[in-house]
């Protein structure tokens, strides 16, 4: 870290009594926070604690109801993101703000206040992305990119603006461990140059590793501060939720039943030049099992989910089987009717319609088969009331924090929306559940709740398939583990027979049986 004497002010940014009201609901309630030059400062809290609302006020997306912001010793009013960037504040949002029809370079150009030729922007983005270990093709269209690649765009375009303070909201959620390590190296370099980072993450091991100080929010208030290097992940989680975080209990054995989900030599051509084709995928998930699929982002996870869910039916009917019936050419609705449930990776626009209330999102996922009859006629009002009651039940069971009785999905924090989406599928008690990245951007307490629910569903006799990049999550929930690499799936092995090292070899594309069978 650079010596303090080189800085003009002891505090780069300071907020005092910062408050944001939505009606009578205080999303942020009298928050005090200071960020010093040349530090990485963690902002911790449960989903819905007020973290996103706070940083949106710092970046000019939301106007505070009351309180003050001081930047480099001067009181400021940050009226817009452009004003924030002019001050020297950059931000990477948890949810992407990208135009899918545009290229990487075009998306970056839209966010830059400095007007440069597109070719120069592409050149700078390419150079920066390579330097930070976040490779990007500046000429690729966003629609053709994986979620991990889209996250790289957000990080690179924020860094291109050379900020004094960069706010990162869950920046490593979709990065590989290697990419995260490269990002951390970049953050350390920024810190050594006297720049500051406000770092939001639910990955507490990361916070311990890279952050100098931490401020903890709960229910919109600051409840504590600490040096995270002097804490443990368990103590940090306890500070966030105000209680001990329950451990996922996979104890006890469940009798394995019939095969409820199967892929038989499933192949599918890449849908875009940048996608991954599926190559002879074979898997079986029995009643009572949780098959977890590990892999580095961009190796066919999304394509596999789409093929299993029916979002993109495949040519050969027999290649996908649900409860013994060939469904390869059936769509997602037919598969839902057979008792299957699906949770995609992307919450907004894929798993939920942001502008619709939670009850309408429930209808879209469940009562699709006769929606007109469901919402019309003399019983329409009663049925609509039943939907709202079901939505409330899901929120109660999954502890979804929300500002109203039936708010728009987009008004929920990312973690709370994820809890609702997972709870929406679990509420049906599906015979088969396929989940892609179940706890992306979710706090420790909520992640534990979701993982336990997946384990309990399998114990009740369902077949559960979990696609995840989080190895801790995989080892917590899985009865069997397989690894996907370049569109090929390894054999599945008992979770207790694999180590992180052997999974790492499989992630690298080593598909031979020698390495894994050593574990038996």
What are the main properties of this structure?
six-stranded mixed β-sheet; 21 strands; about 525 residues; Rossmann fold; alpha/beta; disordered C terminus
Can you describe this structure in just a few lines?
34% of the residues lie in helices and 22% in strands.
Descriptive report:
This protein has 520 residues and is α/β, with parallel strands linked by helices. It has helices spanning 51-58, 81-87, 104-111, 118-131, 147-159, 177-192, 204-210, 233-241, 301-309, 332-337, 358-366, 371-375, 380-398, 414-426, 444-459, 471-477, 500-507, 513-517, and strands at residues 13-22, 25-35, 40-45, 66-71, 74-76, 89-92, 165-169, 196-200, 213-218, 221-226, 259-268, 278-286, 290-294, 320-322, 325-326, 340-343, 432-436, 463-467, 480-485, 488-489, 493-494. The chain has three domains: 4-241, Rossmann fold; 254-339 and 433-520, Rossmann fold (3-Layer(aba) Sandwich), CATH 3.40.50.300; 347-429, no CATH class. The chain is 34% helix and 22% strand. Strands 13, 16, 17, 18, 19, 20 and 21 form a seven-stranded mixed sheet that branches. It has a six-stranded mixed sheet with strand order 6-7-8-3-9-10, sandwiched between helices. A hairpin with a 2-residue loop joins strand 19 (480-485) and strand 20 (488-489). Helix 13 (380-398) packs across helix 14. The protein is globular.
């Amino acid at each position: 870290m650079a010596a303090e004497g080189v800085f003009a002010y002891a505090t780069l940014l300071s907020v005092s009594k910062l408050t944001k009201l939505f009606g009578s609901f205080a999303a942020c309630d009298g928050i005090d926070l200071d960020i010093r030059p040349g530090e990485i400062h963690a902002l911790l809290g449960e989903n819905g604690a007020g973290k996103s609302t706070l940083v949106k006020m710092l970046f000019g997306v939301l106007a505070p109801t009351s309180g003050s912001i001081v930047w480099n010793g001067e009181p400021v009013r940050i009226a817009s993101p452009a004003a924030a960037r002019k001050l020297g504040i950059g931000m990477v949002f948890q949810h992407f703000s990208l135009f899918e029809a545009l290229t990487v370079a075009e998306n970056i150009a839209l966010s830059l206040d400095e007007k440069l030729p597109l070719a120069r922007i592409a050149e700078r983005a390419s150079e920066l992305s390579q330097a930070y270990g976040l490779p990007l093709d500046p000429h690729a269209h966003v629609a053709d990119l994986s979620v991990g690649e889209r996250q790289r765009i957000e990080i690179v375009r924020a860094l291109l603006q050379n900020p004094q303070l960069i706010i990162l909201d869950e920046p490593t959620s979709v990065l590989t461990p290697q990419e995260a390590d490269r990002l951390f190296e970049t953050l350390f370099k920024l810190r050594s140059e006297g720049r500051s980072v406000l770092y939001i993450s639910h990955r507490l091991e990361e916070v311990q590793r890279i952050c100098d100080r931490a401020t903890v929010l709960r229910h919109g208030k600051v409840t504590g501060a600490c040096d995270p290097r002097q804490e443990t992940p368990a103590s940090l989680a306890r500070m966030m939720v105000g209680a001990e975080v329950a451990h996922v209990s996979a104890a006890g054995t469940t009798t394995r039943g019939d095969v409820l989900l199967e892929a038989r030599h499933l192949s599918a051509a890449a849908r875009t030049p940048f996608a991954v084709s599926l190559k002879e995928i074979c898997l079986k998930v029995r009643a009572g099992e949780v098959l977890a699929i590990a892999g580095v982002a961009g190796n066919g996870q999304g394509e596999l989910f789409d093929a299993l869910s029916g979002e993109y039916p495949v040519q050969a009917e027999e290649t996908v089987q649900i409860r013994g019936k060939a469904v390869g050419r059936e769509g997602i609705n037919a598969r839902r009717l057979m008792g299957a449930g699906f949770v995609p990776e992307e919450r907004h626009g894929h798993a939920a319609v942001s502008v619709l209330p939670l009850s309408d999102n429930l209808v879209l996922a469940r009562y699709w088969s006769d929606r007109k009859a469901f919402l019309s006629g003399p019983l329409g009002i009663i049925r609509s009331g039943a939907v709202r009651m079901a939505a409330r039940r899901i929120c109660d069971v999954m502890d979804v924090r929300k500002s109203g009785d039936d708010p728009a999905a987009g008004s929920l924090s990312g973690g709370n929306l994820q809890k609702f989406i997972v709870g929406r599928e679990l509420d049906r008690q599906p015979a088969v559940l396929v989940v892609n990245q179940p706890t992306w951007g979710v706090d420790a307490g909520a992640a534990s709740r979701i993982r336990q629910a997946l384990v309990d569903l399998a114990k009740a006799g369902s077949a559960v398939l979990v696609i995840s990049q989080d190895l801790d999550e995989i080892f917590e929930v899985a009865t069997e583990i397989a690894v996907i690499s370049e569109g090929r799936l390894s054999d599945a092995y008992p979770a207790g027979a694999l180590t992180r090292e052997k999974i790492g070899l499989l992630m690298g594309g080593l598909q031979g049986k020698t390495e894994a069978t050593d574990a038996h």
